[in-house]
């Protein structure tokens, strides 16, 4: 059975290219996009990684590839998937640790997309719950409050469009589901990471303007490569694709002939 690349990259529209844009399948790899529907809504990193590991059950993994804030979860997943020789290799692409500020910015984006208004519509209890301390210590409460308020705000919009109360709430719940999955992923990433160094190898492929350093990546070995491109184009740049293929090794001809 051919080895598989496990990819952690939350799907959806964004300015930056996606790991799928590397088209590693075209080079003969089996690629498993582990963050896909049905998404985990867990904000506990261990449970989130367990969900991802379940997607990889029975799969011989060559490496775990992760974009941006999926990196902390990828590091934990690599340790979970490893064997007696240690974790499987990890490759970050503009990797960075989860950040409370990014979660709060994402909440603001979600509110704007759902309602056209600002995050100022959210009440004080939720604002407090979304502070770094609240996200670390009571993340489930933060998600509960967020879900309630996002559905409430969304339902108001649907009522203005002519839906009755039951229909408006159902529509808001349905539309908000993907956004809540996205925020849960960010919260799990924010809370992931061990105080001890990651024992396995980590490769970091960075764009020239990636704003985060490498000091947070505490690993048994760290290999950093910089691609001379902007962040938004890193995963669409053919140099990134070729570098990734070279670092991982080329697949066997028998696999390419399938």
Q: Which features would summarize this protein structure in a list?
A:
6-stranded parallel sheet, 258 residues, 9 helices, alpha/beta, globular, 6 strands, disordered C terminus
Question: Largest beta sheet: what is the strand line-up?
Answer: 2-1-3-4-5-6
Radius of gyration: 20 Å
* Average of per-residue pLDDT values: 90
Q: How many distinct helices?
A: 9
Largest sheet: 6 strands, parallel
Terminus-to-terminus distance: 12 Å
Query: Order of helices and strands, N to C?
Result: EEHEHEHHHHHEEHH
Explain this structure.
This protein has 258 residues and is an alpha/beta fold. The chain has nine helices and six strands. It has a six-stranded parallel sheet, with helices on both faces. Helix 1 crosses helix 2 (71-81).
Write the layout of secondary structure elements.
Elements: E1 4-8, E2 30-33, H1 45-55, E3 61-67, H2 71-81, E4 90-93, H3 100-115, H4 124-129, H5 132-137, H6 139-160, H7 165-191, E5 198-207, E6 219-227, H8 238-248, H9 253-256
Parallel strand pairs: 1-2, 1-3, 3-4, 4-5, 5-6
Helix pairs in contact: 1-2, 3-6, 3-7, 6-7
Task: Offer a quick outline of the entry.
The protein has nine helices and six strands.
């Amino acid at each position: 059975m051919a080895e598989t690349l496990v990819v952690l990259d939350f799907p959806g529209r964004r300015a930056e290219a996606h790991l799928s844009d590397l088209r590693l399948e075209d080079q003969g790899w089996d690629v498993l996009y582990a963050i896909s529907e049905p998404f985990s809504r867990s904000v506990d990193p261990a449970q989130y990684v367990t969900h991802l590991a379940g997607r990889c059950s029975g799969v011989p993994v060559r490496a775990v590839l992760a974009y941006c804030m999926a990196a902390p979860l990828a590091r934990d997943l690599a340790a979970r998937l490893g064997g007696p020789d240690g974790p499987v290799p990890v490759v970050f692409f503009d990797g960075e640790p989860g950040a409370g500020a990014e979660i709060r910015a994402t909440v603001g984006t979600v509110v704007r997309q759902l309602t056209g208004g600002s995050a100022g519509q959210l009440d004080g209890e939720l604002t407090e719950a979304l502070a770094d301390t609240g996200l670390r210590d009571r993340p489930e409460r933060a998600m509960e409050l967020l879900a309630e308020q996002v559905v409430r705000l969304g339902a108001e919009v649907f009522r203005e469009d002519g839906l009755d109360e039951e229909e408006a709430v159902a529509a808001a719940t349905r539309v908000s589901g993907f956004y809540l999955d996205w925020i849960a992923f960010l919260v799990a990433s924010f809370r992931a990471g061990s105080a001890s160094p990651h024992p396995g190898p980590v490769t970091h492929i960075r764009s020239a303007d990636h704003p985060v350093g490498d000091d947070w990546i505490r690993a048994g070995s760290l290999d950093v490569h910089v691609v001379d491109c902007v962040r938004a184009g890193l995963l669409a740049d053919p140099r990134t694709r070729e570098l990734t293929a070279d670092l991982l090794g080329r697949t066997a001809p028998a696999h390419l002939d399938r």
